[in-house]
Write a structure and sequence with these properties.
Layout lengths: L2 H19 L1 H21 L2 H22 L3 H5 L20
Length: 95
């Protein structure tokens, strides 16, 4: 599934509910899912990782829908490598 397809599917499925919840509450759900992903990373359970990565993507797309941001457009800045140095792999000094 392409990222735009995912976002359109989630928009059709959840936008009314997400908009009613509001952006702040939807953002908090995203943060909660990131925490669950962190726990799955500690356990290294592949099935749980797959599940939590999917949830993080879904909540990110839902938040983008509320904000009117197309994730494909947002991700385009990484299409040709690092947006800072323009190289792939990135040649920036690690932080």
């Amino acid at each position: 599934m392409e990222i735009g397809e995912l976002q359109r599917s989630l928009r059709a499925t959840y936008l009314e509910r997400d908009a009613g919840r509001g952006r702040d509450a939807t953002f908090r759900w995203l943060v909660e899912e990131v925490g669950e992903l962190a726990r799955a990373m500690r356990t290294r359970d592949r099935d749980e990782l797959l599940h939590e990565f999917g949830d993080v993507l879904a909540w990110l797309a839902s938040l983008a829908n509320i904000e009117g941001v197309e994730l494909e457009h947002a991700a385009a800045r990484y299409e040709h490598g690092c947006p800072k140095c323009g190289r792939s792999p990135c040649g920036c000094e690690p932080r």
